[in-house]
Write a structure and sequence with these properties.
alpha/beta; Rossmann fold; 2 domains; seven-stranded mixed sheet; four-stranded antiparallel sheet; 8 helices; 14 strands; binds S-adenosylmethionine
Length: 299
């Protein structure tokens, strides 16, 4: 297995981190690939091939990041993203993905082809996944969709998703953002750190003629500017543990959050993490070894 750890933040903080990682251990020197910069921001990519070493490495990196964040200005927030490079979903070129399918009964995902007409059913989503995560076939995406659907139909919630503003953090192809819109959301902002995925999400939003109501922003928490009634975050566990601490700042009082991307065996750990942040867990679901939580921010 191969994991990519991508770390992004203000350029000066990233340069300091790169220097410290190199001084810390030769293992970081050999795996460090690039320090690039764009609009005053920097990125480092590290590769890890041993799954057993990943958590320990992430913890060590997180400790250094915390020190750097403390010694720089309060805005010097550094984000970390982990991608399992061995995992990929079927792409549009794959026969399996070429057929329309229902990740949940109320939503149909129609793979895009140039000859396809615009669907008239609001429950049909046109999707060209390119190389991004989010065809709707992965259990974590399906768990998020299941919970969104339950919320949309929950009569004890005054409006479900109807008329709500939604943040889809780590939007991949933009599928959850598009599904939220078809369930009645008024506006969705999708945030995606990976430039290729952000590009794919923008394209999918345009294919569904929703560019006026879904905005895709490339980046991480630094591009989130307002609080939301609904936040969706389907991220791998390590990224959720590290970056999930930002979630409460961007949720309105009484707002709802759906998180997924972790193993079913990590549900209790995740419940503890988010309860400590002030959330009340309303639901936990599992599917094929993957877990998801729905929760509400206490007033
Ligand atoms: C598991 S995929 C989920 C995609 C889609 N939301 C879905 O449910 O199918 C996680 C996505 O989050 C993105 N991501 C990971 N860490 C991030 C961060 N710190 N900020 C923004 N996006 C991030 C990844 O690039 C990836 O596209």
């Amino acid at each position: 297995m191969q994991f990519e750890i991508a770390i992004e933040g203000p350029l000066s903080a990233i340069l300091a981190l790169s220097h410290q990682l190199r001084n810390l251990s030769s293992e970081f020197e050999t795996i460090q690939k690039t320090v690039g910069h764009k609009r005053g921001r920097g990125r480092i990519f590290l590769l890890e091939t041993e799954k057993e070493l990943l958590d320990d490495k992430l913890l060590r990196i997180s400790r250094i990041i915390r020190e750097i964040e403390r010694s720089f200005s309060p805005e010097a927030s550094i984000d970390i993203r982990v991608r399992n490079l061995s995992y990929s979903e079927p792409s549009i070129g794959d026969g399996q993905f070429a057929r329309p399918f229902h990740p949940i009964p109320s939503i149909a995902v129609q793979p895009w082809t140039p000859s396809l007409a615009q669907p008239t059913d609001p429950g049909t989503i046109l999707l060209d996944p390119e190389h991004a995560f989010g065809t709707g076939r992965h259990p974590t995406t399906q768990l998020c969709l299941q919970i969104m659907d339950l919320m949309a139909n929950d009569t004890s919630l005054p409006q479900g998703l109807l008329g709500q503003e939604v943040l889809d953090f780590g939007c991949g192809t933009g599928l959850l953002a598009l599904a939220a819109m078809s369930m009645g959301a008024s506006r969705v902002v999708g945030v995606e750190i990976d430039p290729q995925s952000a590009k794919a999400a923008k394209r999918n939003v345009a294919l569904n003629s929703l560019s006026h109501r879904i905005e895709i922003r490339e980046g991480s928490w630094e591009v989130v500017q307002e609080k939301y009634q609904f936040v969706l975050a389907n991220l791998v566990a390590a990224a959720l543990i590290r970056t999930g601490r930002h979630i409460p700042y961007w949720v309105k009082e009484g707002g709802r959050v759906i998180v997924s991307g972790f193993g079913e065996n990590q549900i209790d750990e995740m419940k503890g993490l988010f309860t400590d942040m002030g959330f009340i867990i309303s639901q936990d679901l599992g599917l094929n070894g993957w877990g998801a939580l729905a929760m509400e921010l206490q007033g």
